[in-house]
Amino acid sequence: MSGIHTGSCFCGEVEFEVTGAAVDTGYCHCSSCRSYTGAPLASWTLWHAENVRVTKGEALLGGFNKTGFSHRRFCTRCGGHVLVEHPGLGFTDIPAAVLPTFPFRPTVHLNYAETVLPIKDGLPKLKDFPAEAGGSGETMPD
């Protein structure tokens, strides 16, 4: 769904907006996302980087880049997750939970070879990433 959607960190001191249509939406099962979120999977909404703008509290954004692929950004006041930049791809992802006005309709599971919570929902299950993002593009059974 296109338009303008807004969100914030847990305490509300960092606010952001996304415009246009999401590139894709889904779940990630990789160990990095699981460890970072403290959950068995992460839900994401993917946007062209130029369509994501921090509108308040940019000075409060901290960051961490464990693998070189994803630069995770969080509020230094509350620790709330805000966004994940993928500079090599030109995309930014926003956790679905912090975009309350966006109707989250997942289309794919990423890194399903690492899942700890099998989900039978009929969506494609990619072993790792799509080929165009540097992955194998290989699918796994539902």
CATH topology name, in short, is glutathione-dependent formaldehyde- activating enzyme (gfa)
| Tally of domains | 1
Gyration radius (Cα, Å) is: 15 Å
The class by helix and strand makeup works out as mainly beta
**CATH class placement:** Alpha Beta
Please give a structural write-up.
The model has no long low-confidence stretch (mean pLDDT 95). Helices cover 5% and strands 38% of the residues. It has 142 residues and is mainly β. The chain has a single domain (20-132), classed as glutathione-dependent formaldehyde- activating enzyme (gfa) (Alpha-Beta Complex). A hairpin with a 6-residue loop joins strand 6 (61-64) and strand 7. The protein has one helix and twelve strands, in the order βββαβββββββββ. The chain has one helix at residues 31-37, and strands at 4-8, 15-19, 24-28, 42-48, 52-56, 61-64, 71-75, 81-86, 91-95, 108-110, 125-126, 139-140. Strands 6-7-8-9-4-3-10 form a seven-stranded mixed β-sheet. Strands 1-2-5 form a three-stranded antiparallel β-sheet, with no helix packed on it.
